[in-house]
Every structure is written in C-alpha cells, then in structure tokens.
Amino acid sequence: MKLVPLSDKVIVKMAEVEETTASGIILASTAKEKPSMAEVIAVGPGGMVDGNEVKMTVEVGQKVIFAKYVGTEVKLGKEQYTIVRQSDILAIVED
Q1: What secondary structure does DSSP assign to 67-79, as a single string?
Q2: Do 84 and 56 form a contact (C-beta atoms < 8 A)?
Q3: Helix, strand and coil in the chain, % to nearest 5
Q4: What angle do CA 42, 43, 49 make, to 5 degrees?
Q5: Suppose 84 and one of 19, 33, 72, 88 were both cysteines; which one would form an S-S bond, judging by CB atoms 3.0 to 4.6 Å apart?
Q6: What pLDDT shows up at residue 27?
Q7: What is the distance between the alpha carbons of residues 88 and 34, in angstroms, rounded to a whole number?
Q8: How far is it, in rounded angstroms, from Cα 74 to Cα 81?
Q9: 54-71 pLDDT, tens digit each
C-alpha cells in the first residue's frame, strides 16, 4: 500500500526520539516529548485550497520542523506517519 497526499497535504515520518538525556538518564516512553522534526515522505499537488492557490515548496526527502500537536497520525503496515498541511510546517532543516 502507498499513501498519496491530496491538495496541500504533506506526509512525514517522525524522527526518532532520544531515549536518554545528555546526562545519561533513560527516559520512560511517557516522559518523551513529542518530536516536531520529521522527514518528508510524500507531497500533495497543491492547487486551490479554501479559495487560495497553494504552491508546494517542500520536497520529498527534506527534513522539516512543524508545529506540535498538529496533523493526523496514520499507521500503514508497521510504519507510523503523520499527515500535515504545508502551512503547519515551520521550517526546512538544511545541512
């Protein structure tokens, strides 16, 4: 199966959360903060959204930072993805 985003949607895969702190303390799964960095897996075509034309500026493979607590989490097979609107993406992480 394959996820294909529509409109201004972007499918991202969350970055792995650190299991230990810098001082070596191991975090329980409930104490981990929800990550806001992810890799772009698929990008919708853009087009007209709510009466405004949306041009997609993110690309597959880019690392992005997006607002916390946005998007819809989807599990496909063993993989977990999040679907967000492009407008929820705050920045692209460049090397």
Answers
A1: -TT-SEEEEETTE
A2: no
A3: 5, 45, 55
A4: 150
A5: 88
A6: 59
A7: 15
A8: 5
A9: 999 999 999 999 988 899
Residue 79 CA to residue 62 CA, distance in Å, equals 18
Q: How far apart are CA 46 and CA 95, in angstroms?
A: 26
Token pair 């772009």 in the structure block, residue = 40
User: φ and ψ at 87, to 5 degrees?
Assistant: -65, -15
Query: CA 20 → CA 23, 34, 55, distances in Å?
Result: 8, 14, 39
Take residue 49 and report the two structure tokens written for it.
């959204």
Model pTM score: 0.79
Nearest alpha-carbon partner for 6 in 41, 42, 40, 44? 44
pLDDT tens digits, 1-60 = 889 999 999 999 988 755 556 666 665 555 445 557 899 999 999 998 889 999 999 999
